[in-house]
Amino acid sequence: MPIVARDFPPIGVGTFGSDRYTPAEVGAAVASALRLGYRLVDCAAVYGNEAEVGAALEATVAELGLARDEYRVMTKVWNDAHAPADAVASVHRSLRDLRLDSLDVVFVHWPFPNHHAAGVTVHSRDPHAKPYDHAAFMALWAALEGMVDEGRVAALGVSNVSIAKLRLILRDARVAPRFLELELHPTLQQGELVQFAVDHDIQPVGYSPLGSPSRPERDRTPDDLVDLEAPEIVAIAEARGLHPAQVCLKWAVERGQIPIPFSVKPGQQAANLEALEGPPLTPRERDALAAVERNNRLIKGQVFLWPSAESWVDLWDVDGVIAGQGEAVVE
Ligand SMILES: NC(=O)c1ccc[n+]([C@@H]2O[C@H](COP(=O)([O-])OP(=O)(O)OC[C@H]3O[C@@H](n4cnc5c(N)ncnc54)[C@H](OP(=O)(O)O)[C@@H]3O)[C@@H](O)[C@H]2O)c1
């Protein structure tokens, strides 16, 4: 699959500290990543570290003498800022904290206004949580379209949406989403959604590209599979003298998605960048990796469920119908 956003780097760095790494550590990681050659940083208001990331960005960009069009910064509006005025305020706060005049992409982090406090357990629920409300989502989207008109945001993106929701958004948006951030790693390939995005000129950005081995406890269940230990991935890594993480990233980039691995460790950051070098995967390796697919969703979103929802599956519209709304859209 070809990359859609040709003006974007093929790989970026994540900045979610997973309740494990401090804002200062994540800021230092961004500085280190830029020095190693990364040119794309994935931020979010809810990660609670944009001030530290912004300070690191400003200092390191100056140190490296980079012009603004030589690096890309994306951020996200969190679920507690879906009211249009709150969304605009959130983007302005991100601009200020990241010390930028403009953002390359602003995502709506989740399609629901449901949220949770930092550090909660998997059983935590927002008592005011609601299913997807398309009219409310489009009011939020219109506010972000206004920021594109003003030149403060270059492109808009959606995250954690299904094909059903994306169809509605594409039908009603004045400024179409140009990016889709979604969980992508060899055991969760989301082939149909990725193809749908590419068919609509939307660039897939793959989060948790290594299977998020250090994710918070609330995002772990006993049945979760570990990509870095999948026998097929380990075998390819051993045959090529690579780390399994590098095989995951090679697979991602060759598939046309932009992976955004996170690490505070310069050795890992360098290895992740080096994954793009060397001979491409062979057809046999590509087939072996295609067969690793297990629908192994790790970031299930349980904490965003509304009271009448039956399980986290309701968040993902697996039968093509938007849960709690009942509206199926056929193109
Ligand atoms: N849109 C969304 O809803 C959403 C959701 C989740 C994530 N994201 C974004 O995606 C980014 C990446 O996802 P993620 O942080 O969940 O997971 P990830 O990138 O798959 O995994 C990160 C972890 O993998 C380990 N690692 C990194 N490079 C390695 C290497 N070369 N060898 C061995 N281990 C390595 C590190 O573990 P140790 O620290 O233990 O060494 C690191 O903490 C986030 O930071 C965030 O920006 C977005």
Automatic annotation (TrEMBL):
<feature type="domain" description="NADP-dependent oxidoreductase">
    <location>
        <begin position="11"/>
        <end position="292"/>
    </location>
</feature>
<dbReference type="InterPro" id="IPR023210">
    <property type="entry name" value="NADP_OxRdtase_dom"/>
</dbReference>
<dbReference type="InterPro" id="IPR020471">
    <property type="entry name" value="AKR"/>
</dbReference>
<dbReference type="GO" id="GO:0016491">
    <property type="term" value="F:oxidoreductase activity"/>
</dbReference>
<protein>
    <submittedName>
        <fullName>Aldehyde oxidoreductase</fullName>
    </submittedName>
</protein>
<feature type="active site" description="Proton donor">
    <location>
        <position position="47"/>
    </location>
</feature>
<dbReference type="InterPro" id="IPR036812">
    <property type="entry name" value="NAD(P)_OxRdtase_dom_sf"/>
</dbReference>
<feature type="site" description="Lowers pKa of active site Tyr">
    <location>
        <position position="76"/>
    </location>
</feature>
<feature type="binding site">
    <location>
        <position position="109"/>
    </location>
    <ligand>
        <name>substrate</name>
    </ligand>
</feature>
<dbReference type="InterPro" id="IPR018170">
    <property type="entry name" value="Aldo/ket_reductase_CS"/>
</dbReference>
<dbReference type="Pfam" id="PF00248">
    <property type="entry name" value="Aldo_ket_red"/>
</dbReference>
